[in-house]
Sequence to fold (382 residues):
Amino acid sequence: MRYHGFMETFDVAIAGAGLIGASIGFELAQAGLRVAIFDRRQPGEGASWAAAGILSPAPENAATISMVPLGRASLALYPEFVATLQEISGRDVGYRAKGTLQALLSGEVQAKLNTIVALHHGLGLRAEPLSADDARELEPALSSELEAAVLRPDEASVDNRALTRAVAIAAAQAGVKLFAGRPVQAIRQDGGRCTGLIVDGEKIEARWTVIAAGCYSAEIEGAANYAPVRPAKGQMIALRAENASIERVLWSEHVYLVPRNDGRIVAGATVEYVGFDKEVTAGGLQKILDGAIEIAPALADSKIEETWAGLRPDSPDHLPIIGPTGLDGLLIATGHFRSGILLAPITARLIREWITTQSVSAADWTRFSPMRFVETGKGTNS
Ligand SMILES: Cc1cc2nc3c(=O)[nH]c(=O)nc-3n(C[C@H](O)[C@H](O)[C@H](O)COP(=O)(O)OP(=O)(O)OC[C@H]3O[C@@H](n4cnc5c(N)ncnc54)[C@H](O)[C@@H]3O)c2cc1C
Fold:
């Protein structure tokens, strides 16, 4: 749909209909606001389509420890998020609350086990050390080379493709106007405030504007200072195995395996800084396959059903960028890097709270403010 000769106005205009933009739109429409979302392609063809769908608030490294409370809060919202979406959209989203299991295959295994368990407990995350035998009892496909494992019983996974579709359907049913094939070029500014978006050359007026264009957010004129994201490519493989069945998400240092309800096992992922390139490479696939077969050797006989790559929105400090900017009316919701599927419900809730009450329930959300790059001058992503 195009507007000719008049300008439609909304309470909220959102750039990007990935899981983040669509979840925000859905939540705001449910709160009674008039919302429009503009996507330059079809909704949900970006990182939200490409992801593995693991819902784990555990930190991957020291830099992401400050994200743990946000991740825990979002994981806690998931059962209700999924139930609401499934009811409204009529779609199953493949939510599996079965825990995840980290396989320890080599090195100083006892020391690693102690460190992982202590770190998790210190962060309020449940983690149980398992012997190799106990782990194989839970997951018989695990390698005989396994030395020990850590079970994280509260973690889960979701079919992110189904989830992203369900959110778009639920958003539309809640009254969100979703415009596909409408690229956002710039934010509109008037009298020192943001007054909407320039979409495909046309002016869209809104009291609130949210930039949720994933790794492309920095390309929207006027948004780059607040959302200095860059793409981090991840390659993925979907396997189907006759002779190996996996119940939980399995991890090693090199790879993760995510079982889906339809019997597929999704394996990934590389992290590559190669611009906006989405090619699948022999080296990338080899890395994933080697890691997958190391954890579960029977996967050597599995069929490769699909390969793909996606682009994660990464920020300079690898933490999400969520909240209001120095420009009245403009909010950012991007930079979710490797955790955007996990963080969608809490991101939508925080943005909705801010837009409707100008306050939020998460005490630590200023840690993720878009202003941290503007104030520190650390807006360059290297
Ligand atoms: C291989 C891989 C594995 C991952 N695994 C996990 C995982 O297991 N768990 C997890 O929590 N996270 C995971 N992630 C991260 C997660 O996928 C992302 O953080 C999340 O999907 C980001 O969602 P988004 O809506 O911000 O971005 P996207 O899904 O990329 O959506 C952005 C949207 O904006 C649109 N857009 C871009 N520019 C414009 C413009 N100028 N105008 C209008 N529209 C525009 C795009 O077309 C797109 O639809 C993974 C990512 C990848 C790539």
Remarks:
- Residues 1-5 have pLDDT under 50 and may be disordered.
